Amino acid sequence: MKALFIQHDHVSPTGWVGEALKRHGFEITEVLVVPESSFENPNIPFEFPDFNDYDLLIPLGAPWGAWDDACIGNWLQPELDWVKRAVAADKPILGICFGGQLLARALGGSVAPGPKGEIGWTNIWSERPDLVSNGPWFQFHYDCWQVPQGAVEIARNPIASQAFTYGKSLAVQFHPELSAAALKGWLDWGGTKKVSADGQDPEILMAQTIAEDELSKQRTFNLVDAYLKDIAKLI
Questions:
Q1: Are 155 and 127 in contact (CB under 8 A)?
Q2: Range of 24's domain?
Q3: Could you tell me how far CA 169 lies from the centroid of its own chain?
Q4: What pTM did the predictor assign?
Q5: What is the domain count for the chain?
Q6: How far is the first Cα of the chain from the last one, in angstroms, to the nearest whole number?
Q7: What pLDDT score was predicted for residue 214?
Q8: CB atoms within 10 A of CB 86
Q9: What is the pLDDT of residue 200?
Q10: How far is it, in rounded angstroms, from Cα 163 to Cα 127?
Q11: pLDDT means over runs of 10, the chain (235 residues)
């Protein structure tokens, strides 16, 4: 089986989700939308691959808003159309953070800046702990989705909706893929300032993530296993 990761920026590794899929024998393909050279000016044209060539699609997070057509419209609108067509073709999608917001918007919901951002390790309230556990999960977002009609919200917290299912697709607001190595990349590329502006100590957040690495990997393996079996129907 083949899995396609859409990496919207150059510091979005596939992390624990990629590792989980490799355990099931998936062949992994990664495509990068915005290269490092365009990070400060991300509104570039991009041609998305044919989703029919893959068994599973995983659009990852991004430092930009899934509502922000002015910032990234050259590829945001094409990706929204790509996601919508893939869902209509019954292609399983695991949307992570920005990727989950893409699913919400493509399916007729909406995405907008939230009343409060979330950064760091956070517990959620799941109605499907067999699929998405209560965590803690790593969060790094400022936006929220409105669950689209026909979707089933399965997790939330007092700040934002955290997960929904739609057919063979699952959207999560948090970052199950995140490892300590990935967080270092985020911090190096602007995340340190954002964490500090949120009133948090980036060094402590990094140390906490290192300490959480093995447990977060197992939580993600469990999530991916359940998603592949119960939602995507791929194993």
A1: yes
A2: 2-178+219-231
A3: 12
A4: 0.97
A5: 1
A6: 10
A7: 97
A8: 22
A9: 98
A10: 10
A11: 98 97 98 97 98 98 97 98 98 98 98 96 98 98 98 97 98 98 96 97 98 98 98 97
* pLDDT the model gives residue 83: 98
Query: Among 158, 124, 163, which residue's Cα sits nearest to residue 145?
Result: 163
Please state, in angstroms and rounded to a whole number, the distance separating the CA atoms of residues 64 and 98: 8
CATH number at residue 139: 3.40.50.880
Q: Cα angle at 10 between 7 and 12, to 5 degrees?
A: 55
Q: Determine, yes or no, domain membership for 193.
A: no
198: in domain: no
In a domain, 203, yes or no: no
With DSSP H G I counted as helix, E B as strand and the rest as coil, what are the percentages for the chain, rounded to 5? 40, 25, 35
Q: What is the model's pLDDT at position 59?
A: 98
Q: Is 19 exposed, middle or buried (0-12, 13-18, 19+ CB in 10 A)?
A: middle
Which DSSP category does 172 fall into?
E
Query: Contact 20/45 with Cβ under 8 angstroms?
Result: no
- pLDDT for 140 equals 98
What lies within 8 Å, CB to CB, of 8 at 6+ separation is 33, 34, 59, 60, 61, 62, 64, 98
Supply 55's token pair.
Answer: 């068994």
In a domain, residue 190? The reply is no
CA quadruple 198, 203, 206, 210: dihedral, nearest 10: -150
